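name: query_chain
kind: protein
chains: 1
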Amino acid sequence: MVATLLRARGIHGALSSAASGYDAPGSGLQIRRGPPADLVQHIDKWIGGANKGMEDQEEAERQRKTKALAEEEERQKRIREVNEKVKNL
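structure:
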């Protein structure tokens, strides 16, 4: 996803200086431009994990709702059965 965003902004390849990956604005001070080489992969992995977690939560919620619906249907069935027995007394 991050790689796609970077390409959309016209950034292709690694985000660093062409020569060494560092700029030297002052004596002895080096500042790296752009993210570390594997940052995009880490972000993609993190987003993938987050998406998986959301999918798992949604599936668990669907299962809870299905179970609750089945329990409610069973409860209503028992109520109808009891009502029929009482009506026939």
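note: Residues 15-20 have pLDDT under 50 and may be disordered.
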